[in-house]
Each structure stands twice: as structure tokens, then as C-alpha cells.
Model the fold of this input.
Amino acid sequence: MVVFLILHIAGDPVQLFLPPGASTEMIEEYRQALGLNDPIWVQYLRFLKGLVVGDFGKSFYYNEPAMKLVMERFPATLQLTFASMIMTIAIGFPAGIISAVMRNSKTDFVIRILALLGQCVPVFWIGILLIILFSVKLHWLPTSGRGTFLHLLMPAFALGMYSAATTTRLLRSSMLEILNKEYILVARAKGLHPYFVILKHALKNAVSAVLTVLGMHIAGLLGGAVITETVFAWPGIGRLAVQSINNRDFAVVEAVVILISVSYVTINLLVDICYAIINPRIKLNGGG
Done:
């Protein structure tokens, strides 16, 4: 409802599609054809009625069903999100484990500083720096677009940096708490190999706390890809949303918001189920 109201308050899309010299009669006729002359509450009820059957109406700009346009772009966003999560796990898990095991060392200090920067630096700024360095200066990677594996590297890294930094800090904190538990001390006293103690006993219990955050980040990446896709001209739903906002293409923006919302709820539900599977002490009904 909030998005619907904001979109309709933001401006009149008719002004973007008609020539500057259009007559008042032409403007009113076009507004009537689009259903924009109806009261806002009538338009909202019409939107809800279509929402029930999955009909978001037609795009003003493309003159095609809004959800069809969104679903055509959705695979590109899923690809970018999946690649970003691989970056998150590949960077965040080793960094968090090393930082916890080597607590208060120089390595730990460097990792913590980098993790803090990763959470503070804006995604668009990282993206611009990557383009300047690897595309403009070194000519190693393409500046934008989607096609080959090389096109995916920079946007996936830029989008995954915040999640990797958060995962590093959270995993370090969880690992430090677990490493002080009695059963870890007993395992070490038995002479078990340090790698076995860390990866088998400590990490298995520490990752439960990280899993929930990772699930939230996966869902957040779907919405957070808006900026990254715009910087790298990645043809996903984020870039489509920005273009549709500029074009005041109400139906497409509403379809994007609904799709991201449903994805967010679904992913969090799956994470809760996985959380219970990984840690059998957690019951799906919320009991202990």
C-alpha cells in the first residue's frame, strides 16, 4: 500500500509519454485510457483485485504484462544473487574462522579492519572503483552487461562485500564463544587434531547463528541488487525497477516489490527449516 501511494503521488506518467505540445483533451483521453482519472482508492482496489489472480496490469512503457517483464529479468538477478552468496561464503567463512583462531594477532586485526570497512563502504562506490581499476586501467574485465563469467565477477564481488563482512564478524564472535566451551576443551585434551576440533565441533555449532543472518542477506541481496545492477548495467529486476521508477511505470514497480517481498518471506521460511535440521535441539514448533 505504501509503495502504491508513493508511486501515485510521485508524478503523472502521462506527461512522459505524450509530446510536450499535447492538448488538454489528449492528456485527459490518455489518462482515462490508463485508468488514472479514477480516485486513488478505486485504483488501489483494482490493483488488489488483480493481485489476487496475479495480474499486475500492463506496463505503460513497454505495453506488455508487468509480471512477464519482471520474470524475464528475474533469472539475471538470481544469478547475481547466487554468485554474491558464493563470494560471501568463500570470503566470510575462512576470514571469520581465521580471525577467531588467531584472536588478537596482527592477522585478526587486519581481518577485523577489512570487515568493518566492508560494512561501511557503499556498494556503488566499490563498484565504481572496481570498474576504474579492472576495466579502465587494467582492461581485465568488461565494464558492464551480462554474458560471460567475466561480466559476473565485479558485480558479484561488489554486492557480496557487505554480506561477507557481516558474516566474518558474526562467525568470529560465534566461534570465540564456542571455543571457550567445555566440550571444546575436552576435545583438545583428548589430543584431537586442531583442524578437526575447529571444523567438526566448533564450526558446526557456530554456523547455526550465522545461518539465519545468511538467509536474511540472501533475501536482502535480491532487493539490494538495485544499486549494483544499475552501476554495472546488469539486466535484472533491480535495474528494471530503477528504469520503471524513472518512467513512472507503476505496474512494473509494484510487480518487482511484490516479487521481492514473496522471495524474502520464502527464503526466511526455508532458513528456519534448515536451522532446525542443522541443530536438532531447535524444534520447528518453536519449542526447546
Notes: The longest helix spans residues 194-231.
